[in-house]
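Suppose you are handed only these lines of text.
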Amino acid sequence: MDFPALKEFGLQDYPFICAQCSYCQSGHGACPTYKVKRTDSYTGKGKMLLTRALLQGRIDPAYGLQGLADAIYGCTLCGGCAEVCQTDIPFVKIYQVLRGEFKKRGMWPENMNLTKETLLKACNIQGQAQMDRIEGWSYWTPNEDELLDKQGQPSETAFFFGCGSSYRGIAIQATIATTLILDKIGEDYTVLGEEEYCCGAPLIMMGDFEGARTLAEHNIAKYKELGVKQIFTNCPGCYKMWAHEYKEFLDIDHGFKIRYGYEYISDLIKQGKIEFTNPLNIKLTYHDGCDAGRNGGYYDEPRDVIKSLPGVEFEELPHNKESCYCCGSGGVLRAVDGGFAADISKLKADDVKRTEADVVASGCPSCVEYLKDQLPQADCNKVVKDLMVLVAEAMGLTWDGLGEIYD
Ligand code: SF4
Ligand code: SF4
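From them, the structure of the protein bound to iron/sulfur cluster can be written out as follows.
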């Protein structure tokens, strides 16, 4: 049998170069899905060997294809296999391309059609009103009028929120924190408000590349109208789309400079623009979200931010940076199999429990939301906060939403 999309993306040879060393199965910090399932097909090696066997006709698709589909969708796209593999297989890209193949064969997991329908109808993954992207929570910030006025204003710099950071209570706190920080130091930026559509990441992760195109093109056109030259976002999943995947999967060259929010804020701190007045007096640990860390390479910037915060005693997680365990929320696994994602989060909770920290921070709205939800269910009662919120608190900034979420 054939997987034409592997050829289309120049990936057809990679399943044949796996050396079968099994390091992606047993190596330090490797596959979280294998750690839970203990089934070989869930590892990088298993997926490469199954793909290879199907391409060579050594397995009857009637027996092998569904197993590969289960493993390809039962993956958080965390990049752990790519991190430990001795070869240069671009695993995450191959998994997404194969998801596209399964979509074409009508083998999409049950929830995918509904997720797509919601997203394309509402222009956001929550299926909520676009008007609420800011107006749903702007009463939480003391700078409500300034924020509403920024919508659609011309500027060379744009803050792209992302869906989670616009609609989920805990993730919104990092959005508010960012706007208050930038307002306090007088940085100019624009926001799209209800004209900001989802970046399309869920569709690309589901394997529906063309479905993401209209969303991407809408946002790009809006930013061009406003004279935007650089875009920053706190969501590493949105960052990955804007910085890499529009080009890789949709062949779109938008021409904007794309920055991860914590790199942006780290630079502002280094330039001396941010002044800290309020010691936090906390013991802190840090979770490297997969798209920020392994898939994005942003290990130092969040740690530079942490080092600059007053009153913070920092302790790394036992598995950190390249070896950081996925929280379980990546790769649309929560939509495919919520119970499986929750089982993965227990591995993360065990790691967090091994620290003396009382606060766990991350630079990913999706991780922060999922950890806040899942850690207590694994008897881990540490406070979960976005790193941007800690920056704002150390600057002495306060707002109503934070009190509502954490009191
Ligand atoms: S991307 Fe992560 S979850 Fe998926 S196979 Fe690789 S290590 Fe496992
Ligand atoms: S680490 Fe790489 S080469 Fe080794 S078994 Fe896994 S996919 Fe194959």
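What can we learn from it? The radius of gyration is 21 Å. The chain has three domains: 4-104, 112-268, 275-398.
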